[in-house]
Design a protein that fits this description.
With 141 residues, the protein is of the alpha+beta class. It is built from three helices and seven strands; from the N terminus they run αββααβββββ. The relative contact order is 0.29.
């Protein structure tokens, strides 16, 4: 009886990390089809707090350290990169198999200002990313 009570107590006291709600991502470009521009969108699926703590807080820091972070973090996260040409109607990137296990999901976009923080979409099941001349807008689809 005491063992069962301790087990129940541990389940109540030890916090568990919530899984990401992200089920789908749709990317649309609202840029002029005659412009010559391609925007890169990086979606990071982070599976533990230690990995999440290593992700830079700005777009410029992410892209400056991207290669080394990919090498260092290895299997601790998944990166989905999509390149969208101007005026492209839409793209729906394939999510990683373990996307539902992520504790945090962040978006970085090349088309944003250098000090822009990543957008946290962890709680959004259906995500719409729109690229316009001023940057990206992220909302529920």
């Amino acid at each position: 009886m005491l063992k069962k009570a301790l087990t129940v107590l541990l389940l109540v006291v030890v916090p568990t990390q919530a899984a990401a709600a992200v089920e789908s991502i749709l990317i649309r470009s609202r840029l002029d089809p005659n412009a010559i521009e391609i925007t890169g969108i990086d979606v990071l699926f982070l599976y533990d707090e230690a990995t999440a703590a290593q992700i830079p807080g700005t777009k410029s820091a992410w892209y400056a350290n991207r290669r080394s972070l990919i090498r260092e973090l290895g299997e601790a996260f998944d990166l989905v990169s999509t390149f969208i040409p101007q005026g492209f109607d839409s793209a729906r990137p394939t999510l990683p198999e373990r996307a539902g296990e992520a504790i945090r999901v962040l978006i970085f976009a090349e088309h944003e200002a250098s000090e822009t923080a990543p957008v946290d979409i962890t709680e959004m099941p259906r995500v719409l990313i729109e690229i316009d001349p001023f940057g990206i807008r992220v909302s529920a689809e």
